[in-house]
Amino acid sequence: MENGRVVRTEAGTVYFRRPGKMRWQYESSEKSLFLVDGKTAWFYVPSDHTVTRVPAKQSADLRTPLAVLAGEMRVSRVCARVEVALEEKAEREDHVLLHCVLRIAKHEQGGKGVSAQAAPADGRADEVFFEIVRDTGDLARLLVNQSGGVEIEFRFENWRIDPPLPDSLFRFEPPVGVAIVNGELAAGDAAVK
């Protein structure tokens, strides 16, 4: 607990490969793997002996929009607009904080295409902030504020551009005896990773 709020911290390594591949290896608090192979998003927790798979384009998991970093989509597909954040501040003076006004599918509102996100009944729309190092353009932090007061923060450091990585790093082969579940990740999993 921190300031009366439940805080869960996880740490690990993430790899991005164009087009649209990611591998998130969590080492703490619990070993797990989130992998997007370009078509399918996989979430595997060895201690559960279960892997969840879902078509990557249908995944609501917050890591999937980070496909922007893997070159699969453009920021304009995720954000209706990007502007310098006025109400939030970057953690460091040499960083800039950008506010992403999210797009939502109009079919969720009964129409076609996409539009800027409207605030839900509680008055608080989902928000995404990108904290960027001014001199290098490196992403230092991604902050997601969800309706209902849920905040998710990703911190990035030690960026290495185009390191040599084997293709096998971006393929998931379920171990023998692991149950494969088709469908979306549970809301709790999507919110805490």
Note the topology:
Layout: E1 11-17, E2 21-28, E3 32-36, E4 40-45, E5 50-55, H1 75-78, E6 79-84, E7 95-105, E8 114-116, E9 127-133, E10 139-145, E11 151-155, E12 179-182, H2 187-192
Parallel strand pairs: 5-12
Antiparallel strand pairs: 1-2, 2-3, 3-4, 4-5, 6-7, 7-8, 7-9, 9-10, 10-11
Major sheet, described briefly? 6 strands, mixed
Give the terminus-to-terminus CA distance: 17 Å
Q: Unreliable runs, pLDDT <50, ≥5 residues?
A: 105-124, 185-193
CATH class membership: Mainly Beta
**Shape, principal axes of CA atoms:** globular
| Total number of strands | 12
Give me the secondary-structure category. mainly beta
Order of helices and strands: EEEEEHEEEEEEEH
Write out the CATH superfamily name.
Answer: Lipoprotein localisation LolA/LolB/LppX
Rg from Cα: 17 Å
| Approximate helicity band | under 10%
- Please tell me the total number of domains: 1
Question: How are the strands of the largest sheet arranged?
Answer: 1-2-3-4-5-12
Task: Summarize the structure in words.
There is one protein chain. With 193 residues, the protein is mainly beta. It has a single domain, classed as Clam (outer membrane lipoprotein receptor (LolB), chain A). 5% of the residues lie in helices and 39% in strands. The protein has two helices and twelve strands; from the N terminus they run E-E-E-E-E-H-E-E-E-E-E-E-E-H. Strands 1-2-3-4-5-12 form a six-stranded mixed sheet, with no helix packed on it. A hairpin with a 5-residue loop joins strand 9 and strand 10.
